[in-house]
Amino acid sequence: MNVSIGIPNFRAWTAIILHRPHDAATAISRQLERIGVASRTVWPELGAVDAEADIVFFDADHGYDGQFPWVAGAAPMPLVALLGSEAPGRVEWAIAQSADAHLLKPIGSAGVYSALVIARHAFAARNALKTEIEELRGRLRRRPMVARAVIAIMHTERIDEDAAFRRLGQMAMAARRSIEDTAEALVARHGSADDARDSA
Amino acid sequence: MTRRYPIGVLFSRRGPYALLGRDAFDGALTALGEINDDPSFPFELTPLTGEPDGVADRYQAIADRLIAQGARHVVGGITSWSRKEMIPAVEKGDALLWYPCPYEGYECSDRVVYLGACPNQHIVPLFAHVIPRFGKRAFLVGSNYIWGWETNRVARRLLDDNGGTVLGERYLPLGREDVDRLIAEIAETRPDFILNTLIGPSSYAFLRAMAVLAERDPAFAPERCPVVSCNLAECELDEIGPAAVGQICTAVYFDSIDTADNHAFLARVRRRLGAARRVSAFFASAYMAVRVLAEAIREAGSDRPDAILPYIPARRFASPMGDLAISGRTRHTAFAPLLATIRTGNAFEIVEKAPQAIEADPYLSDYSGTGPAAIPATGRTPQPMLRVVAT
Is the reported ipTM for this assembly greater than 0.85? Predict the structure, then answer.
C-alpha cells in the first residue's frame, strides 16, 4: 500500500478526551497542546457539540455502550482507545467502537502524535474503502442492465458480444459516464424504440 | 562542607562523530569548571563521564550507570539515535537529559531539555535563504538514520511547497566515506544546491569530493551549486580543510558572532582550553546546558528534576548567543538562527541572522506551507518565509 502522510499538521484541530479527570487525561491534553491541538476533557457522555470534534480519545477501561451520540462503529471522526487493562473484554469493547489507534496507559510525554497520525490515516482509509465498496455494490446491482445493453448493441449493430462490449465502453468514454449509466440510458432508449416499433 | 552534585556528561569522544562529541564534552566541562570556580554558586558540580564510542546501543546502559552513581542530570548525546536510547534511562531513573544538538524534531519528552535547534530553526530558515538565491532543484544526501531521513523529508516538503524538485535522495551508513556514486549522480543530475545531512567523516569525504568535482566542472563551485548543512561545526573545518570554503551552513551559534558577550565567552574558553580553540554550536549548547542547570539548581536549592524544572522557563539565561528562553510547554529553546558562509581560514562568515528568537515548533505545527516566521536577509525587510517569488 502506498502511504504518504507528508508533514501531518493538526493545527486548528479540536480533540475530545473522553475520560474522567485523571493523569492520563492531563498527559494527553499536554501532548496535544504541544502539537497545536486544542482539547477538552469530557465525562461520562459526549454531547452533540462534542460530535463535531476532529478526533476523540476514549477511555476503554471504564467506557460503556451509550457514551457516544452515534451507533457503535459509526463515529464521524477518528477514535483513539486509551487502554489500561489489556483484558480481552476491554480490548473487544474498544474494537467494537472502531478505534483507529490506541494508546496504553500510563501515558507519558510521547505517543499522542503517532496516534493522531495513525488514527487519521486509518479513519480516512476505512471511509475510502467504505465508499469504494458501496460503489462496487452499486455496479454489481446494475450488471444485468449492462448485459441487456450489450445484447441490444449486438442486435442493432450486428456485432458479436466482445465487440458490443467494447462499443459500450467507447460510448461511456465519449459521454464521460460510467458503463452502468451508459448502459441504463441505452436500454431505456432501446426499450422505447422497441415500444414505438411495437405500437406502429 | 561544599555541597556536591554529580552531573553525567555522556558524549562519544571516539567513533564516527568524535569531533562533535569532544566539542560538546569540552563545552559541558568548561561550564562545570566555571561554575566550580565561581563562589556565587554554593555548590560543586562533579562530572561523571562515560564513553559509548559512538555506538548507539551503549548509551542506555552508560546513562543507567551514571544515574545509579547519583547523577540526576545527564548532559549528552550527539545523534538522535543516542538520545532515543537515553530517554528510557532518565525516565526510569527520575533524571533529566540535557540534549545540546540540532535534531529533526517530533519529540517533546518531559524528561529532556532541548538546547539544540529543531527544523523550524534550522532547515526552514536555511531553505528560505538558499532557494531564492540558488534555485529549487535540490539533491539530498544524508547519514542513514533518523536525522537524515526526517530532515530530508522536511526538505522535500519545503521544496514541493515552492514548486521545487528533489533530483535525488541518497544515504550513507554512519562512518562510511565511499562517496563516489553520490558524486557521480550529482554530476549527472546537476542540482541547484545540495542538502548535506551526513555527519562526521562521511560529511568530510563528501565535501572534499565536491571540491574536486568543482575543480573539474565550475558549475559545481559553491557560488553556483552550494552544499548546505545544518550540522557542520567549527571543530570540523580544520579536519575538512579548504574543501568546504564557500559552502553554506546554519546553526544557532558560530564562534564568529561579533558581540561583547561572545568575545568574553571565547576569551574565557581560550584561557582554559588554549588560544587556538575553536568553539561550535555543539560546544556552546552543551556549555549552556550546564549553565542553565547550575543556575536552576542554585535557585531551587536542589538538583531534583521536579524542583528545578519550574525555574527553567521562568527566566532568560545569558549566553554567548544572546539571552535564551526555554519554553515550559515544549522544553525547547528559542533561537535566532544564523546563516553563514565558510571563508578561507575556516571561518564562518555570518551572512544572515533572524531578527528575533524563533520559538521551537518541534511538530512543525505552525508550518503552513508558505507562512512560517520570516528570517530576512541582513538589512532587508522581513518577507514571508519561503515564498519564492522569482527564480
Answer: no
What is the largest distance, in Å, between two alpha-carbon atoms of chain B?
68
Q: Which fold has domain B120-255+337-353?
A: Rossmann fold (3.40.50)
Is the Cβ pair A34, B157 closer than 8 Å? no
d(CA B73, CA B96): 5
- Binary contact (B91, A108; C-beta < 8 A): yes
pLDDT, tens only, A58-67: 999 999 999 9
- In angstroms, rounded to a whole number, what is the distance separating the alpha carbons of residues B376 and B355? 8
> B114 to chain A nearest CA, in Å?
14
Query: What are the pLDDT digits (tens) for A25-60?
Result: 999 999 999 999 999 999 999 998 999 999 999 999
Nearest chain A residue (CA) to B111: A109
Q: What is the CATH number of the domain that holds A169?
A: 1.10.10
The reply to whether A29 and A127 lie within a common domain is yes
Q: What is the pTM of this model?
A: 0.85
Given a cut of 60, is residue A120 above it in pLDDT?
yes
**Which one, of B200, B210, B286, lies nearest residue B248 by Cα?**
B210
Residues A147 and A127 in one domain: no
A108 touches chain B (CB under 8 A): yes
Residue B83 to residues A130, A169, B77, B106, Cα–Cα distance (Å)? 42, 59, 5, 13
Q: Which residues pair with B325 in a beta bridge?
A: B316, B334
